[in-house]
Automatic annotation (TrEMBL):
<feature type="domain" description="TadE-like">
    <location>
        <begin position="20"/>
        <end position="58"/>
    </location>
</feature>
<feature type="transmembrane region" description="Helical">
    <location>
        <begin position="20"/>
        <end position="41"/>
    </location>
</feature>
<keyword id="KW-0812">Transmembrane</keyword>
<dbReference type="Pfam" id="PF07811">
    <property type="entry name" value="TadE"/>
</dbReference>
<keyword id="KW-0472">Membrane</keyword>
<protein>
    <recommendedName>
        <fullName>TadE-like domain-containing protein</fullName>
    </recommendedName>
</protein>
<dbReference type="InterPro" id="IPR012495">
    <property type="entry name" value="TadE-like_dom"/>
</dbReference>
<keyword id="KW-1133">Transmembrane helix</keyword>
Amino acid sequence: MQLMQLLTVRFWRLWVQRSGSILVETALVLPILLLLLAGAFELGRFMLANQKVSALAASMADMISQADQGISESEINDVFGAIEHVSKPFDVGTDGRVIVSGVIGTSGNGNVVNWQRCAGAELDVRSQIGAQGARNVTLPGSLDLLDGDMAIVAEASFNYEPWIFFGFFDPQTLRSSASFRPRFGAMDTVTNDAPASSC
């Protein structure tokens, strides 16, 4: 009997004691908070990567379309040199690809890819509008070109791999494209003054 009373008294003291309750509650809630924090970090990183890919496509098309009096291989290579700066903190040079195409409208063959240049890693990413020489191509945003009109189309892709949830989510290829019309004249050919960044 005395043992039972002793156990009851000790159990009652343990039940009324609240000094360790904060530690227990923290131990229960902390993993959930860390999971939420990690998820917010990964979601923010994914959104930033998507934004960088969109900005990269728009920047490449915009810079090339501003070339004065046609375009040369060295000018295209100079623009491709900006990929690293536009895509920071992501490395599109090793985990992505940029494809720039000069598309001309024709009356008989629709839109034709006159020239195409690529930079970045050799991913299994092909141009969504077609390879050099492709005919009747559809441009981003259903842009219509009249006979003799030009458009510069840039396509950017990046192989996104999660940092934290790499076992739960598969890597994804983020893609974006942009098109601009040349501002200062025709760009139907590329002047050969340097090694070509061919696809």
